[in-house]
Amino acid sequence: MDDPTATFKFLGLTFDWTTIISTLLAMAIVIIVSIVLTRKLSVKPNKRQNAIEYLLDFTNGIVNGQLTKKQARQFGLFAFTLFFFVIVSNEMGLLIQFKLGDGVTYIKSPTADPIVTMTLAIMSLMVAHGMGVQELGFKGYIKNMFFTPYSWMLPLNIIEQLANFLTLSLRLFGNIFAGEMLLTLVANSLAWPGHFNGLWSVLALPIEMVWQGFSLFIGGIQAYVFVILTGVFISQLSGNE
């Protein structure tokens, strides 16, 4: 049975309160943490400055290995923001879940919703296609995307572009959704009624702790993979491969 949802309509469209609240909270966390870590920057960095510089160096290392120097400079800030937002969104539902008496979970991982991951995929692919046009010109971009290496591969190249979108969005959604779903099942089993409730709770609690730790690790890996794939698509569409 599906969990209850809280929705509202605006201009004929239906919006989910859980997705809106969770996404806004993830955005707020990214903004607040970034502001706190970048206050009072100095030549001799403190621990907060070291943390943000390490994260920036990490994302710069991803793009520098895939793109030209010019593209890496252009894409670097987007890659940093994308990685930071995705990793916060992935981990948020594992650490914070807020449910009211109506049974609706108002705060969970935004990336456990396919609408959010598809939106992120569209944004990333728009950046990739835009940089492809910038690098090759419109005619060169069309030729590289649809008629390379051979013109008769046009149908396969079209399918590839659709597959890129599905790969980017559904991989992220599937991993985060499955992790949260299994954690919910294990947590619910802790309250399983019956004579063996005490014994089952003893077994289920360490399983939940281990799986939560594993899910946190997977959340970080998926944020890394999302940025990696975005860089790969930029490189492909710019004719770097």
From TrEMBL:
Subcellular location: Cell membrane; Membrane
Membrane topology recorded in Swiss-Prot or TrEMBL: Multi-pass membrane protein
Transmembrane region(s): 20-38, 75-95, 115-133, 172-191, 211-234
Keywords: ATP synthesis, Cell membrane, CF(0), Hydrogen ion transport, Hydrolase, Ion transport, Membrane, Transmembrane, Transmembrane helix, Transport
A GO cellular-component term linked to this record: proton-transporting ATP synthase complex
Molecular function as annotated in GO: hydrolase activity; proton-transporting ATP synthase activity, rotational mechanism
NCBIfam families per the UniProt record, alphabetical: ATP_synt_6_or_A, PRK05815.1-4
PANTHER family: ATP SYNTHASE SUBUNIT A, CHLOROPLASTIC (PTHR42823)
Name the record gives this protein: ATP synthase subunit a
InterPro entries attached to this UniProt entry: ATP_syn_F0_a_bact/chloroplast, ATP_synth_F0_asu, ATP_synth_F0_asu_AS, F0_ATP_A_sf
